Amino acid sequence: MNRVVITGAGLICCLGSDLESFWERLLAGESGIGPITKFDPTGLRNEEAGEVVDFDWSRYADDEVDEATQFAFAATADALMDAGLTTRGARLSAAIPDIGLVYSTNFGGAYSWESFVVASRDASTGADEAANDFRQFQFQSASEYVRQELELGGLAATLSNSCSSGVSAVGMAFDQLRLGDAAVIVAGGYDSLGLSSLSGLSILRTITAEKCRPFDKNRSGTIFGEGAGMVVLEELDHAKARGASIYAEVLGYSLNNNAYHLTAPDKEGEGMVQVIQRAIGHAGISPDAIDYINAHGTGTQYHDPAEILAIKAVLGDHAYKIPVSSIKAATAHTLGPAGAIELIATVLATRDDIVPPTVNYETPDPDCDLDIVPNQSKPWPVTAAMSLSAGIGGNNGAIIVRSMD
Amino acid sequence: MNTPIHVTGIGIVSSIGIGRDEFFAAVRDGRRRSGKIEDFCIEDYLETEKTYLDHCSAFALAACAMALKDAQLPPSCIHHPSASSGICLGTALGCLQTMEDFFLRVIEKGPRYANSLLFSHSYANSPTSLAAIEFGLAGYHSTATSGESSSLIALMQSLNALRLGYAERIVTGGVDALSEALQRVWAQIYPDRMPGEGAAVFVLETETAVVERGLQPAAFPRIVVQSAHCDGASPAADSIERDIGFVVGAMDAFNTATAMGELEDAASKQVAALSNSTPQYQILLSRD
Question: What are the domain boundaries of chain A?
Fold first, then answer.
């Protein structure tokens, strides 16, 4: 089977709209969370979120498309540029016409959906206007737009696996490449904040009324955000043949479901245990070979200790010897792209041998007694690392990468 | 990686027939009916009452229940500690009715009075996740939301997962339901098509899993080859352009099958089905 490597990355989130400024701020222990300005947040449990604030769509295109599609397009274009597969302002090289896309999203074009619901029930709204809103909302609309604009001829797929979406998209692309069905695929996730989604997450009390504090004893929930994270996955020989710079190799991944409850976490973390075990098994490495874990770490009361329990169940004593951090208090929980953005942070940790911190940490919790890298980044040799994700519906995902020699 | 994959169970909810035999009989008879499904009652398929289900989730649960029953899978196989049974479903629009009902309440009453039950059932992955919970499918898990290609993308994911050893069996297929929102824009979005809804689900198993259950693999259709193809047509492309996409994709599938040696003795095999419902993905089924 083919080996698969990451040769490019692009992201947009509240911490930054380019890879290096994101990484710099993340390592500095900054948080991008701030007041919600896109809509009136009155009535939500928290009026702060991880809004994208420094994004300029006109740098990429001038089409009137949903903001979520803009995020997806921009992160894809940046990832392809980072991989040396295109340059700003130019179309993709025809030398690789079959580049594929595997996207993931929770809410598709969220703004367009909300606009559609309101406008299409108003008799004064034209049929074409309502139909345009609906098309912009549809889950596959971003991949179709990007595929056409960048003239990509490969597979175009969209997945929706709640907050493990990003890992699932990268995993599906990884399988296509391993099996030789493609040579290059851009994979990742995107989502934009909307009143609808935040109202639901607020009423579920997933959102904290305070600060997001992953693994802290006084944690009380998460803060949501928006953006996109995309990686260029490439078959190793293909990457070598064109002299591409390689960030890391993807060794394996796993997806599963707790098969327990739609919204309640499995406090024993059994599903997370299985997904970690399987990812390690598929990667063909020993649990002791993992040097760093980028945890899902939402800051919710029950999920954080369940995740720690699962890590300890699989890694045993080794879990106490490695850093396990969450970047959600810095980036906010970005929903569909969360897994992809966290994978990018994990890959950069293998590149630079430094681990991003868990910010807002104050009070240790005996149930989360691993080295969670409190508040300050940590220089640490990282060869192999794992990123974990989980989401509504009981979805779990784990993916393992290793730096290249 | 070259493990043969068999179709061991089928479950269908459609406007012309619910259940495998009724559906095939309706197809044979050329039955036509409005795309809206009538006379469907989820209680006929589940053992416990549900507080709430979007139609999309209800169709998915019913089709999965029928497929698992058709596959004669005992609970011990599905609930195996190794979590070797998974589920991948595709849906173009997910639980659209619930999405709209939820947001209308937010508009009317504000976020403080949002309905948490509706929200948790509004995700695109809700049908897949509910089926995993209902039937104990704790293994490989995914939901494809790739427009009209969704169910075939889910099938592709499932086949890859089985071939790569991620699972022994995967319940896979597609589901969608009509909704008030969709009906308001149907004529603009799908100008040449009749509105429809339903679910079609397969149980796919590796040959090893079939044999371990004491069954004869030859009794079940085998997936021969898949081919992903993209014709570059825009979503708004006219039907002629899309039809060209179907043909090119079908040729891709046949050519790939021939190159892989799967169709060397094509004359002795019956190609049971070539699914080409979208221009982006084709699949061949064969019975030896």
Answer: 4-241, 249-402
Options A163, A212, A303, A368, the catalytic residue: A163
pTM for the whole structure: 0.93
Question: Any CB–CB contact under 8 A between A404 and chain B?
Answer: no
10 Å Cβ neighbour count for A40?
A: 12
3-state secondary structure of A343: helix
Tell me the shortest Cα–Cα distance from A272 to chain B, in angstroms.
11
Active site residue A212: no
Q: How many Cα neighbours within 13 Å face the side chain of A55? A: 29
Q: Do A256 and B99 touch (CB under 8 A)?
A: no
Nearest-angstrom CA–CA distance, B194 and B213: 42
Fold adopted by B5-217: Peroxisomal Thiolase; Chain A, domain 1 (3.40.47)
Q: What is the block-wise mean pLDDT of chain A (405 residues), using blocks of 10 residues?
A: 97 96 98 97 98 93 94 96 82 70 97 94 85 96 92 90 95 96 95 98 96 98 98 98 97 95 84 97 98 97 95 98 98 97 98 98 98 98 98 96 91
Residue B222 has pLDDT above 80, yes or no: yes
ipTM: 0.97
Nearest-Cα distance to chain B for A259, in Å, is 4
Confidence bin at B285 (pLDDT 50/70/90) = low
Domain ranges of chain B: 5-217, 221-288
| CATH architecture assigned to A4-241 | 3-Layer(aba) Sandwich (3.40)
HEC string for chain B:
CCCCEEEEEEEEEECCEECHHHHHHHHHCCCCCCCCCCCCCHHHCCCCCCCCCCHHHHHHHHHHHHHHHHCCCCHHHHCCCCCCEEEEEECCCCCHHHHHHHHHHHHHHCHHHCCHHHHHCCCCCHHHHHHHHHHCCCCCEEEECCHHHHHHHHHHHHHHHHHCCCCCEEEEEEEECCCHHHHHHHHHHCCCCCCCCEEEEEEEEEHHHHHHCCCCHHHCCEEEEEEECCCCCCCCCCHHHHHHHHHHHHHHHHHHHHHCCCCCCHHHCEEEEEEEEECCEEEEEEEC
The stretch B17-33 carries a mean pLDDT of 89
- Looking at domain A249-402, its CATH architecture is 3-Layer(aba) Sandwich (3.40)
Residue A89: per-residue pLDDT: 65
Listed by number, the residues of chain A in 166-185 with a beta carbon closer than 8 Å to a beta carbon of chain B are: 168, 172, 175-176, 178-179, 181
The pLDDT of residue A26 = 98
